[in-house]
Amino acid sequence: MVLNMKCYSKVLNYRLKYWRMVNQDISLSDELYKQLSERADATGHESTNQYVVFILEEVIHQLGDIETGIDQDEVEGRLKALGYVE
Question: How do residues 10-25 score in pLDDT, each as one tens digit?
Fold first, then answer.
């Protein structure tokens, strides 16, 4: 039963996060929305909105790495050298 509650909690948190985002508006051209919609379908996302959120989160994550000047390959190499990662 504990496992089911953890799964339910994750689903509930995702739905709350998604619900909060629904209230935000961003204007897109019809052509861009069409392209995003086609890619969302092709990649198995449940909706175009979910796909757009996924893309934006990935871009923000990558920009965060750039802004901090952290090279992921360098960090991984250091962790391997220290024996933390195989």
Answer: 555 555 565 555 567 7
Q: In residues, how long is the chain?
A: 86
Q: Does any domain span residue 6?
A: no
75 domain residue, yes or no: yes
Q: Range of 56's domain?
A: 26-81
Residue 19 inside a domain? The answer is no
pTM of the model: 0.51
- Burial bucket for residue 63 (CB in 10 Å: 0-12, 13-18, 19+): exposed
Closest CA to 40 of 29, 49, 28: 49
